[in-house]
Amino acid sequence: MLVCENVDRLSRQGAKAAAQLIWSLNEAGVDVATYHDGHIYKAGDDGDLMDLLSIIIKGALGKEESFKKSERSKANWTKVHQEIANGDKRAYSRQCPAWLDIEDDKYVLNEHRANIVRLMYGWYNDGLGCLIIMRKLNEMGEKPWSSEKRYKDRNDWTYRYIHKLLQSRAVIGEYVTLKGETLATDYYPAVVDVDTFYKAQSVRKVRASIGGDERKRSANLFLGISKCGVCGKAGVFMKRTFNDKYVKQDGTVVHYKNTRTYLKCNEARYKESPCNNPAHIRYDVIEKTVLNKALPLIASQKHEDKVLQAFDLKIAESQREIDVRQKQLDNIVEAIANGVAAKALAQKANAIEAEIETLAQQIANTKLEKDIEAAKPAKNQDVDLIAEMRSNLESEDADERFETRARINSLLSRLLRAVYINDDRTFTVEVDDGFSATYAADGTAIGYRVAGDRIVGAMDEGFLLEDKDMIIDEAFKRVRA
Q1: Considering only CA atoms, which of 165, 129, 463, 471 is closest in space to residue 295?
Q2: Which of 123, 201, 248, 329 is the most exposed place for a label (fewest CB within 10 A)?
Q3: Where would I find the Recombinase domain in this sequence (predicted)?
Q4: How would residue 4 be classed by pLDDT, with cut points 50, 70 and 90?
Q5: Cα 360 to Cα 355: distance, rounded to the nearest angstrom
Q6: 272 and 383 share a domain?
């Protein structure tokens, strides 16, 4: 037997379709019961004419009632959305972000949960992923907040919920509809500041291209940063184990396994790959060189922020195109008013209006990207943070070691454009503003470039170039813009 609330629940295609479905089920030997009216349509029972007609009548009435309810609900929410857009901050629904309470028809922060949200954003911006945050919350004994029925009886946090929370614009006070329209920027009490939120979106953008188990990835500080200097594809962290030996003073030979780690082009590992970069460079050399030599140089230089300027240029260009199209639209409206080819011009006006809307959306998206970029801290601040954490890079505590490496990887992702593994067994550390430094496989500095110009003199007081005679263009020609 199939039990449903009402006949109209069997199909959204109307009463006729619902009736045909019931008859088909009956012919297949299945009874159908509707508990709204307590009626059973039995298999093998042809029934009388009124019984058959009642299926269609009930289905039609049910669908009409559902439509009316839907329209009433839409009208109610349209009114609510209009009030919110006009600045009303009343709590219109008991369903609200989990870190808020309702007092006197107003949303207020639940301080305990607000602190948890701030903690989560802090962890995420420090480089910890959703899985690790989930584990930490469960270990703290913090009960999950999800109100979804399928998670109601769970006693632990879910990856999905944390992922959604770290993207929710409600944390900065915004009210966004299901269609993505922002009605108010201060409807809810903000739980984190705008900079913190945009930093999280910047981190999420970087992490989006990185997969795999977090704990296994954590050993590599250059995850998502290392690239091939030939094909530009991602670098890979590799381990190789060698059989080694040493002789004691008494002449005893001791055999042991020696594990070394390298960075090389991931594509070049495969025979069918077009990339033929054979270089693999010791990971420990790259790590020490970047931390000990490249980062102090980055912190000592005065960096011009050309990235934000590029966003401004993009916005200005889109606005210029809007102004041109708006002028075209004004001319068309004037022509229509004078009775010139009204129908044809109206169609053209609609097309131009659509183009203006598209350009306006492009400007909004570019401004959002600019806000995310602007939220990044100054490079010297990131360098200082890395310096503070370096003592824990090789901590005996596995959790502490993992968290430290994850955080430093996140900071390096902001500081560096890439670390290129070149096919002449050099590696190039490139910063996002055009500064790059190239090193030999043993970490010896070969040369530097700033805005494409080769540097022969001192970079800064206390940082003199090593082996100036070895500076060659070949070391830099594969650096990708």
Answers
A1: 463
A2: 248
A3: 97-210
A4: confident
A5: 9
A6: yes
